[in-house]
């Protein structure tokens, strides 16, 4: 890319990154709403859960798109550096390298912030589930509560509800526990996607290097082929010149031979004429005798 076009891509990336950060903040707000609704035993509702699902999916799509932009910019930097190594002008390459590295760092920081936020809310959800379990089973030990939360099995809470005397809040607690378990599973999936995103970024950097090497090899081969073609053309030109020179030499020799033959013929004819002139008087004298 020309440098102005590259800088325009950087500007667009910065705008998209700001949008991604805003979306992450919206996800955090929905998590807070979920925690607040559970604390008040009002439940969260399928509509709000669907909204959180949609916002998390939007966040994931934005992160992947930003990753692709960073890799596109880095690939262009490598191509520009290869070009600069030939023409010797490294100014554009240095500018592009600086901007691309900053874009990568900014994206990594934003994604890590998202990851940190999701881990924090996962912990909060687990703490809340532990409190809910203690509500329905006040006699449970810390080990039992930790095992119930860690297992992620809502049946444990259902069994505790059956043996609990707090029937008035039983249904709301059961619903809240199911919703929080779904939130935890959603967060775990998001964290897995973020880990994969980082891996893909590193893998694509490794995969990009051989591609550049292949381009360089092809360029070298093309240069060698061009040099060979120029050599062959030079030899052909030299041969053509030599052929033209030999042609003129041969033509000159042919003309010279013709001239010599003509001279010889002329001499022979002249000599014959002179001989004939000398023989004619002698013949007439003999006839008279």
UniProtKB/TrEMBL annotation:
Coiled coil feature spans: 56-120, 177-232
Molecular function via GO: SNAP receptor activity; SNARE binding
UniProt-recorded name of the protein: t-SNARE
Transmembrane segments: 248-271
InterPro entries hit by this protein: SNARE (IPR010989), Syntaxin (IPR045242), Syntaxin_N (IPR006011), T_SNARE_dom (IPR000727)
PROSITE patterns from the UniProt entry: T_SNARE
Domain T-SNARE coiled-coil homology: 174-236
Keyword Membrane on entry: yes
GO cellular component, one term: SNARE complex
Chief site of localization: membrane
SUPFAM superfamilies listed in its UniProt record: t-snare proteins
Top-level taxon: Eukaryota
Pfam families associated with the record: SNARE, Syntaxin
Family the entry assigns: Belongs to the syntaxin family.
Compartments (UniProt record): Membrane
Key words, A-Z: Coiled coil, Membrane, Transmembrane, Transmembrane helix
Topological relation to the membrane, as annotated: Single-pass type IV membrane protein
GO BP annotations listed: exocytosis; intracellular protein transport; vesicle docking; vesicle fusion
